[in-house]
Amino acid sequence: MMGGDHGLEVTASGVSLALDRHADLFCTLVGDEEQIAAVLNPAVSGGRYEIVHTSESVDMHESPASALRFKKDSSMRVALNLLSSGEVAASVSAGNTGALVATARFVLKTLPDIDRPAIISALPRAQGHVHMLDLGANIDSPAAILMQFALMGESMVRTIEGIERPSVGLLNVGSEEIKGSEVIKTANELLKESSLNYVGYVEGDDIFNGKVDIIVTDGFAGNVALKTSEGVAQMLTQVIREEFSRGLLTRLSAVITAPVVRSFSDRFDHRAYNGAVLLGLNGIVVKSHGNVDGVAFSHAIDTARLAAQKDLVGHIRHDLEASQVAVARTAPL
Amino acid sequence: MMGGDHGLEVTASGVSLALDRHADLFCTLVGDEEQIAAVLNPAVSGGRYEIVHTSESVDMHESPASALRFKKDSSMRVALNLLSSGEVAASVSAGNTGALVATARFVLKTLPDIDRPAIISALPRAQGHVHMLDLGANIDSPAAILMQFALMGESMVRTIEGIERPSVGLLNVGSEEIKGSEVIKTANELLKESSLNYVGYVEGDDIFNGKVDIIVTDGFAGNVALKTSEGVAQMLTQVIREEFSRGLLTRLSAVITAPVVRSFSDRFDHRAYNGAVLLGLNGIVVKSHGNVDGVAFSHAIDTARLAAQKDLVGHIRHDLEASQVAVARTAPL
Predict the structure, then answer these.
(1) In terms of domains, do B87 and B138 share one?
(2) What order of strands is seen across the sheet that includes strand A91-93?
(3) A64, A205, A243: residue with CB nearest B228
(4) Cα–Cα 20 to 30 A to B326, which of B271, B272, B297, B306?
C-alpha cells in the first residue's frame, strides 16, 4: 500500500508492474477511492488489491508538525496505521519525506535502543552496490546515533543481501584539520570498539569504489552525497548523448553502440535503486523518490516486499539485542 | 613556486609544461636543491626558474600544529614566506592540506573582515563550470562564516571569470525536517539581506545542472560533495570502457567512437580542474591535488598565474570593503 502525492497514474502503473512481477503480492492502495479507481485498471493482476479511502493528503511542502497534527485522515497517516495494526506487512510512500519520518516515528515508534530512524538506500557501483545511511532523516547525528545507524545498517545488509559480515566505513573528509570533528572522532572510537566489521574512515570517492559495503554518515552529508552522485550521473549521461549526436559518422556509430549505451544506462538506472528504507521503526516503511515513473515506483514496492519477506524488522531487533548483550558483557562490573 | 610532496618528477613535469605555455611565467622551486636539479632539465624553457633550497618537508600525515611548530625550514613554510615578503606573486602546493591552510593563515594572515580562509575550486558542468566553497579548510562554519565565503566567492568569480553578478546558492538538503538546521537558516537570512545575486537553497544535484555559478557550503559537506562527484565520474568512465571492450562488434565500434569517448574524457578531465584556491588570505595560495600527474600540476600553476595577473587578492579586499560600507549604510543609526 502507499500514500503518494506525485500523480496517481505513476502509483497505479507501479502497482500494476509489481503485481505482475510477484504472484504473492497483495496491494492495499490508500487514498482518494474515486481518483484511484479512475486510473487503476480493475482487472490488474487478478484483482490482488484493495482501496482504502482517505479524505486528506499531506502536501509536499507541509511541515512535519502540521502533517502530524492536522492530517489524521491523510493517506500517509492511514497507511502507517494499517502497518501498525498489522493489516499490511510494509508501507511505501512517495510523499513528503519530513512528514513521513515524523509520522512513522509517531505511529510506529522506534525499536528498543534506537533513538531516531535513519534513511538507508542502495547505490549502484561498478560491481554490486553499496548501502548508505542516513540520507536525510535527521538534522544532526551525535556519535552514539551514528553508532546506532551502523548497527542497523549492518543488520539490514546481512538480512537482505546475505553478507555475513558486511564492512562498514564512516564518512569523513581527507583534510587532517577537518578530521578533528569531535563527533566523527568519537563515533570512530565507538565503531572500533564494536563487534562490527569496521574498516575506518572513508571519503566521498570511496562510496563507489567498492571499499566498503555500508557507509555511515549524518543526514546532511549523506543527502548531499546522494544528490551529488545523482547530479553527476545525470550530467554525464546527457553529455554522452550530446557527444554521440555530433557529426554524421558519430551518429552512425551511435547506432552500432546503442546496445553499449543501453547496457550502461541499465546498470546505472536510478529507477532500479528507487526505494529507500526508514530503518529503526517497528515496521517496514519504504520511501520512493517523489519525482519518478511507474517502473521506479514498482522497484520501491519490490524493496518493501523483500524486506517484509525477510523479516527485516525482526532481524534488526534481534541483532540490536545481541549487541546490547555484548556491550553488557564487556562493560565494567 | 611550490612545496610539494608527491614525487618531484610530477612537479618538475608540471613546471616544464607551464613554462612552455606561458612566456611571462617565472617559477621559483622550493625544496631539496639536489633532488630538484636531478629531475629538472636545466634547459627547460630558457631557464625561467630558480631553486630555493630547504632542508625539511611537511609529511602528508603530519598534524597542522606540528608542521607550524617544527617545520620552519620546510618547502611549504619557506614558499609561503617568499609569498609574504613579495618575492613571488603566488604559491602552489601539492602538500598536506591541513598544514597548508594552517601555515598560510599563520604566515599570510586573513584579510580584514575574514575570520577563516576557505578552499574554492571550479567543477566541470555540461556547460561551463561551477565554483564551490568551502571544500575542506574548516571543521565547521557558523552562518557569519558562510556569508564571508559567499562574498569572497562572488568577488573571485567576478574577477577571474568576468561574470558581473554571479549567482550564489546555499547547499542544503531536500527534506523539510533537515531544513531546520539553525546555521543554514541563519545563513539563508544573511544572504537574502546581502547585495549578492542570491538564488536561495540548492541541493547536491544542483551543483551540476547550471542553476548557480557559486555554491556555498561548510567544509565537511563541500568536501564530501567534491569527492563524491569525483568518485562517480571515475566509476562511470571505467564502466564505459568496460562496456566498449565487450564483444567483437562493440570493440570494432569503439574504434569509430574513440573520438567521442576522447571528447567526453577531455570535457571532464579532472586534471584541467586541478588547482583549488585558498581564499581569504593576504596572498594567492593554490592547492594541487596530491595524487596527480604533471599535466594536472601545470593546471594548478595556470590557476595561480591567472589569479596573480588579475590581482585576485586586491579585488577581494576591495569588494569586502565595499560590502562593509554597504552594511554600515544600511545599519540603523
Answers:
(1) no
(2) A49-53, A27-31, A2-3, A91-93, A285-287, A276-279, A118-124, A129-133, A214-216, A167-171, A197-202
(3) A205
(4) B306
Q: CB A139 to CB B176 under 8 A?
A: no
Q: What is the DSSP letter of A61?
A: T
pLDDT tens-place string over residues A135-189: 999 878 999 999 999 999 999 999 999 999 999 999 998 755 556 688 999 999 9
Q: Which of residues 235-274 of A touch B (CB under 8 A)?
A: 235-236, 238-240, 242-244, 246, 249-250, 252-254, 256-257, 259-261, 263-264, 267-268
Whether A135 and A254 share a structural domain: yes
With b for 16 or more beta-carbon neighbours within 10 A and e for fewer, the B48-59 pattern comes to: ebebbbbebbbe
- Please tell me whether residues A125 and A249 are part of one structural domain: yes
Residues B232 and B291 both lie in one domain = no
Residues A119 and A144 in one domain: yes
Phi-psi region of A284 (alpha: psi -120 to 50; beta: other; left: phi over 0): beta
ipTM confidence: 0.88
pLDDT at B3: 44
Nearest to A299 by CA among A276, A269, A277, A275: A275
B140 close to A181: Cβ distance less than 8 angstroms: yes
Using an 8 Å CB-CB cutoff, list chain A residues near B224: 171, 173, 203-204, 217, 221, 224-225, 228
Report the alpha-carbon distance of residue A309 to residue A306 in Å, rounded.
5
CATH of the domain at B126: 3.40.718.10
Residue A125, chain B, CB below 8 Å: the answer is yes
On chain A, the residues whose CB falls within 8 A of the CB of B101 are 175, 177
Closest residue of chain B to A139, computed from CA coordinates: B178
Residue B26 sits at φ, ψ, to 5 deg, of -130, 130
Better-predicted residue by pLDDT, A247 or B159: B159
